[in-house]
């Protein structure tokens, strides 16, 4: 921000907006600059332009993706213009963030297929009517070879090598392709094209976001501020939420599944989810913590969180039904949405049957689950690993959440 500009006073509403912006964030760069942007916006009535770029690398979003979308919605509620940028051009380069190997780029067909569902799903969090949707091919394609070379001249190799994953790969002798240097440049150029006041991203995006800030300065624009959000841990409480690690909660998953997955997180991790996913006030969450410290059951707070999340992506009724289903399951009951499977070959061994019903990955896993008391037929625990199952219809259960209604014929 131009240091010659007069410093504006921060009104109570600006300070409140700043507090809302900072809730749950990892870093706000530079806070004093953003406070002045907020003050100027209040004075002029011109909303800030707030950018979030997402590459459509997979067709579905999970709760980890919604951490930054929640922040966008909060800023949207404050009256600012949010821009949902679909990186259809940058997806074809491939973002090297957090990678130790070159990431394969997507094809145009893959990108278009994934992009079709992105905004529809993001609209479950954002106010779609007040969201500007852009595709970065709009300004990246017209650059052409000459424009790309000119853009590349605005950033040095030394600056690129300051990036942690690049420096580690270089030190380890792991190949870095030249096109990977183009990704942060193109993401930064998006900020120039959109004249962004603030750009949001995960902590793994910090370098790319700062490139945008530097490029804006080089193009004579006021520099954007940077807001990074923490990466949400998955159901295991260790690794970041990821479909590839199977520790995710998809935002289009059935309500009962979503509810049960939230209930499976630890009591400690629950507060992390509250901070990053809940729309409850900071004061309300502090009150829940205090109540639990005073002896209240943490399960009640987790139920409230699970219901809030299910209601957001489904409905209030779905949240109530999911709670009833979860209570029923916890008492050993059978849920309503059990998949039906038709199999033949009776009589068949219990281990083989569990594998064929897709309840266990292998017969050895099935036998381990029997040893652990985790297998039931029509609610009765099975302990005999040599059991042969005759023809008939029955409900198989493995663990707390895997069910199948099996019709077995000879």
From TrEMBL:
<keyword id="KW-0547">Nucleotide-binding</keyword>
<comment type="subunit">
    <text>Homodimer.</text>
</comment>
<dbReference type="InterPro" id="IPR014729">
    <property type="entry name" value="Rossmann-like_a/b/a_fold"/>
</dbReference>
<dbReference type="Pfam" id="PF01479">
    <property type="entry name" value="S4"/>
</dbReference>
<keyword id="KW-0436">Ligase</keyword>
<feature type="binding site">
    <location>
        <position position="243"/>
    </location>
    <ligand>
        <name>ATP</name>
    </ligand>
</feature>
<dbReference type="InterPro" id="IPR002307">
    <property type="entry name" value="Tyr-tRNA-ligase"/>
</dbReference>
<dbReference type="GO" id="GO:0003723">
    <property type="term" value="F:RNA binding"/>
</dbReference>
<keyword id="KW-0963">Cytoplasm</keyword>
<dbReference type="InterPro" id="IPR001412">
    <property type="entry name" value="aa-tRNA-synth_I_CS"/>
</dbReference>
<keyword id="KW-0694">RNA-binding</keyword>
<keyword id="KW-0030">Aminoacyl-tRNA synthetase</keyword>
<feature type="short sequence motif" description="'KMSKS' region">
    <location>
        <begin position="240"/>
        <end position="244"/>
    </location>
</feature>
<keyword id="KW-0648">Protein biosynthesis</keyword>
<comment type="similarity">
    <text>Belongs to the class-I aminoacyl-tRNA synthetase family. TyrS type 2 subfamily.</text>
</comment>
<dbReference type="InterPro" id="IPR024108">
    <property type="entry name" value="Tyr-tRNA-ligase_bac_2"/>
</dbReference>
<feature type="domain" description="RNA-binding S4">
    <location>
        <begin position="348"/>
        <end position="409"/>
    </location>
</feature>
<keyword id="KW-0067">ATP-binding</keyword>
<dbReference type="InterPro" id="IPR002942">
    <property type="entry name" value="S4_RNA-bd"/>
</dbReference>
<comment type="function">
    <text>Catalyzes the attachment of tyrosine to tRNA(Tyr) in a two-step reaction: tyrosine is first activated by ATP to form Tyr-AMP and then transferred to the acceptor end of tRNA(Tyr).</text>
</comment>
<dbReference type="InterPro" id="IPR024088">
    <property type="entry name" value="Tyr-tRNA-ligase_bac-type"/>
</dbReference>
<dbReference type="InterPro" id="IPR002305">
    <property type="entry name" value="aa-tRNA-synth_Ic"/>
</dbReference>
<dbReference type="Pfam" id="PF00579">
    <property type="entry name" value="tRNA-synt_1b"/>
</dbReference>
<protein>
    <recommendedName>
        <fullName>Tyrosine--tRNA ligase</fullName>
        <ecNumber>6.1.1.1</ecNumber>
    </recommendedName>
</protein>
<dbReference type="InterPro" id="IPR036986">
    <property type="entry name" value="S4_RNA-bd_sf"/>
</dbReference>
<dbReference type="GO" id="GO:0005829">
    <property type="term" value="C:cytosol"/>
</dbReference>
<dbReference type="GO" id="GO:0006437">
    <property type="term" value="P:tyrosyl-tRNA aminoacylation"/>
</dbReference>
<dbReference type="GO" id="GO:0005524">
    <property type="term" value="F:ATP binding"/>
</dbReference>
<feature type="short sequence motif" description="'HIGH' region">
    <location>
        <begin position="56"/>
        <end position="65"/>
    </location>
</feature>
<dbReference type="GO" id="GO:0004831">
    <property type="term" value="F:tyrosine-tRNA ligase activity"/>
</dbReference>
